[in-house]
Amino acid sequence: MPELPEVETITRQLRKQVLGKKIVQAKTFDKRIADHSINKLVSLKIVKVWRRAKAVIINLEDTLYDHKLFLVFRLGMTGHFHYADKLEKQAPQEYLVASFSFSDGSTLSFNDIRRFGSVRLYTEGKLKKILDSFGPEPLSKGFMVGVLRVLFQKRKKANIKVTLMDQKFIAGMGNIYAQEALYIAGVDPRRKIESLSSSEISKLHHSLQRLLKLAIEKKGSSVDNYSHLEGSGDFQNYLLVYQRDVCPKKHKLVKIYQGGRGTFYCPKCQK
DNA sequence: TGATATGTTATCTT
DNA sequence: CAAGATAACATATC
After folding, report:
1. How many Å does it take to go from CA A250 to C1' C1?
2. Separation of CA A66 and C1' C11 in angstroms?
3. Which fold has domain A145-265?
4. Is nucleic acid strand C under 7 Å from A225's C-beta?
5. How do the domains of chain A map onto residue ranges?
6. Domain with residues A4-131, CATH architecture
7. A176 touches strand B (CB under 7 A)
8. A218 touches strand C (CB under 7 A)
9. What is the model's pTM?
10. What is the pLDDT at residue A228?
11. What is the mean predicted confidence (pLDDT) over A126-134?
12. How far apart are CA A130 and CA A128, in angstroms?
């Protein structure tokens, strides 16, 4: 599923293709998950392509009227982009949610099979409000171990694994990387936050950053039908516990359910 | 055929 | 009242 490393990978590739381009036409095909106002986009220049949490954000500028708008793509489970250099390379029509044509003849489309994703158009104020509701970026310079300690102070009674996946707590972690980080840190996913020792918090902090950085290097994990613009990621080959039978030390893994989500862990390595 | 997969959010419980 | 837990959404795949 697209989590931080996957969305970061997609964002970087998208940036290479569309940064600086001018939108000449935009169309939406699914009212429920794509803002109808997107259809009115014309003659707006893409000035920035970036990621926050699991969202891809495209900054648009109307230079003539000094008008700023923001396209926010959330991939959900199965949202994906399709980029075509030339018009004759048709974008897939199935599950089409939105499509954009640029002044150089290239096109970008967004498709979503399960429709957990969305494409929204926001003003600056509205965008800020949404972004402020997310927790800190785990790979930002400011995300020191002290930041994690302070966050944990506020969630003493909560379950550690479920909390790692909470976007309001830390941005970008999902079911795959929360499990992996806990395994690397040697922490049992059933633990309550208040039970974590100082050194366990340090280990978890370090594990999170190492894991996410490596996963980005490998262009994300391709499980189910995730793929980025240039093919598949490699990190699925490096996953230690997610949907596996044994851990790297050949111990048998256990699967439990937490908040309706599967969690794999090793009773021997994770305490 | 029904169980399984999950990001996000609405709603329920403690 | 708030923190925490859970249900609901959608649908391809096994």
Report:
1. 48
2. 42
3. Helicase, Ruva Protein; domain 3 (1.10.8)
4. yes
5. 4-131, 145-265
6. Alpha-Beta Barrel (3.20)
7. yes
8. no
9. 0.94
10. 56
11. 93
12. 5
- Asked if residue A151 keeps its beta carbon closer than 7 A to nucleic acid strand C, the reply is no
A window 72-111: Cβ near strand C (< 7 A): 77
Q: pLDDT of A69-99, one tens digit each?
A: 999 999 998 999 999 987 666 677 889 999 9
Strand B closer than 7 A to residue A52 Cβ: no
**Residue with structure tokens 């979503």?**
A112
Residue pair A264/A257 in contact by the 8 Å Cβ criterion: no
Catalytic sites of A, residue numbers: 2-3, 54, 261
